[in-house]
Each structure stands twice: as structure tokens, then as C-alpha cells.
């Protein structure tokens, strides 16, 4: 079978071409394609360990199967910063393995992942049942604000390497993951725990995503309380991060000026 491989940024410079057709055996995987590319392009081999791969414009893990005519993108970690940054609004099911694969590098020794899940029953306050949630987003602005959150994380925890913030939209049933936030680093003391917590708190403050709760008693949109006109619009998440940092002598990120 034949697939079309597209090269971007520094990987395009290494190969000296933007794209090429590659012939592979039926049933070949993304990982096998990367090994084939390392053989074809010796100058590309050193960069393939941390390179990201997409298949038909979706991020792909090493074990994903390829098919005739697939468009495969091969590129370095995206969005500036010390390591890869994955930001996405999607209607597709969230795949933890694909998420982690996009953040790992040869120096990665720890990754902290937070996943929000649809509750079927809420016990806090007056108990209530939830039939499903409906998530809606302003996608272009949401991804810009996700990039802002990732930048704040990098400023506060410079040892964090990879960052992923992925939000699912649409109708989601109880037990379904709604959001995944992951931070990777060389060690568990690199700030990955605190950074992931900050990420979800900050996402709920400034990223334009809304949810409607639907249950036996009716439906209602859930709205937040973020006000961008306040003197410090990052107050709650920033205060939590500062308190966490102060309590942890092993983590000493540089604070971001406000």
C-alpha cells in the first residue's frame, strides 16, 4: 500500500522535501512507518524519537494501523515552549494512550493526567441524577485560550516538558471522559502534579466552553463566574498555584508577572 508523507518545519529541512509517497506492507503501523523513514533518511533518524505523527489530520500513536492513501504528517512538537503542546476541541472519544504518546520524549520520566468524567449522580448539596451532558465551545477562541493556559503553566513550572489540553464537546453520557489535561516532565518533582491541577482550574475560568446538564428533573446550562474586568482575572487559579508552590519546597517555578 502507498501513503503520502508530509514533512513540516525542521523535519522538512532535514529531508529537503515537503512530501513523498512511501510504499509499506499491508497492515503497517505508524511505528513501522517511522522506522522506514529512519532507514530512508539517515539525517531524519535523530529527530524521529520526539516527532509527532498525524494520520488524516488526527494525532496518531505508534500502534495505529495505516491504510492505502492515508495522508501522514510528520512534524516536531507543536506550539513554542520546552516541549510538545497539544491543544484541541473535539467531538471524538478521548484516547489516553494517544494523548500520552504525543507528550513523551526520551527524557520523560513522569506524566500527570487529569480526566473529568460525566457523573451520573451528584451527591454534593441536593442529590440529583444526570442523564447526559451537552458541551458546547467557541472553538477558535477556546484553542487560543488553551494556548494561554499552556503558556502560564510553562512560566510557572519551567521544568514541565509536554502539555496537553483536550476538551470534548457534544452529548456525553455518564462515565464518559469530558476533558484530559496532562503534563509531562523528567521527574515527578518537576511540577507535573501542580501544573495539571492549575490547568483544569484555569480552563474552567477562561476557556469558552459550556455544559448543559440534562436529567429527569429537566435541563439547565451551567455558567461560571469569570469576570475579565477584575484587577487580577487569574486570581483563583493563580492563588491556588502559589499556595501549592509555597507548600512544596521541591517545586520552585518562576512566577508570572501580573
| Annotated CATH architecture of the largest domain | Alpha-Beta Complex
- The counted number of beta strands is 15
- How is the main sheet built? 5 strands, mixed
Nearest-integer average pLDDT:
84
CATH topology category name of the largest domain: Aldehyde Oxidoreductase, domain 3
CATH homologous superfamily identity of the largest domain:
Molybdopterin biosynthesis MoaE subunit
* Total tally of structural domains: 2
Description:
This protein has 2 domains: 1-76, Roll (Ubiquitin-like (UB roll)); 78-258, Alpha-Beta Complex (Aldehyde Oxidoreductase, domain 3), CATH 3.90.1170.40. 29% of the residues lie in helices and 31% in strands. It contains 7 helices and 15 strands. It has helices spanning 9-15, 30-40, 45-48, 96-101, 139-156, 192-206, 235-247, and strands at residues 2-7, 19-23, 52-55, 58-59, 71-75, 85-90, 110-117, 121-122, 128-129, 132-137, 160-168, 170-172, 177-185, 209-215, 218-222. Strands 2-1-5-3-4 form a 5-stranded mixed sheet. Strands 6-11-13-7 form a 4-stranded mixed sheet. A hairpin with a 2-residue loop joins strand 3 and strand 4. Helix 5 runs antiparallel to helix 6 (192-206) and helix 6 (192-206) runs antiparallel to helix 7 (235-247). The longest helix is centred in the middle third of the chain and has 18 residues, at 139-156. The N and C termini lie far apart (54 Å). 30% of the residues are buried. The model is unreliable at 244-258 (pLDDT under 50).
Amino acid at each position: 500500500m502507498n501513503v503520502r508523507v508530509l514533512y513540516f518545519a525542521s523535519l522538512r529541512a532535514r529531508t529537503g522535501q515537503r512530501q513523498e509517497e512511501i510504499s509499506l506492507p499491508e497492515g503497517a503501523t505508524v511505528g513501522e512507518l517511522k522506522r522506514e523513514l529512519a532507514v530512508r533518511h539517515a539525517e531524519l533518524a535523530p529527530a524521529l524519537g520526539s516527532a509527532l505523527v498525524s494520520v488524516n489530520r488526527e494525532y496518531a500513536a505508534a500502534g495505529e494501523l495505516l491504510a492505502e492513501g492515508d495522508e501522514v504528517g510528520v512534524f516536531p512538537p507543536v506550539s513554542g515552549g520546552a516541549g510538545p503542546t497539544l491543544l484541541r476541541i473535539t467531538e471524538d472519544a478521548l484516547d489516553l494512550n494517544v494523548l500520552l504518546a504525543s507528550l513523551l520524549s526520551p527524557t520523560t520520566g513522569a506524566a500527570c493526567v487529569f480526566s473529568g468524567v460525566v457523573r451520573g449522580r451528584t451527591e454534593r448539596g441536593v442529590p440529583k441524577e444526570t442523564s447526559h451532558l451537552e458541551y458546547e465551545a467557541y472553538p477558535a477562541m477556546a484553542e487560543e485560550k488553551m494556548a494561554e493556559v499552556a503558556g502560564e503553566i510553562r512560566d510557572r513550572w519551567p521544568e514541565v516538558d509536554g502539555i496537553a489540553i483536550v476538551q470534548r464537546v457534544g452529548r456525553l453520557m455518564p462515565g464518559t471522559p469530558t476533558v484530559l489535561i496532562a503534563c509531562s516532565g523528567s521527574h515527578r518533582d518537576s511540577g507535573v502534579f501542580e501544573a495539571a491541577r492549575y490547568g483544569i482550574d484555569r480552563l474552567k475560568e477562561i476557556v469558552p466552553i459550556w455544559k448543559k446538564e440534562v436529567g429527569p428533573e429537566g435541563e439547565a446550562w451551567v455558567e461560571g463566574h469569570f469576570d475579565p474586568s477584575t484587577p487580577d482575572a487569574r486570581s483563583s487559579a493563580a492563588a491556588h498555584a502559589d499556595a501549592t508552590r509555597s507548600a512544596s519546597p521541591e517545586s520552585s517555578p518562576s512566577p508570572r508577572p501580573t
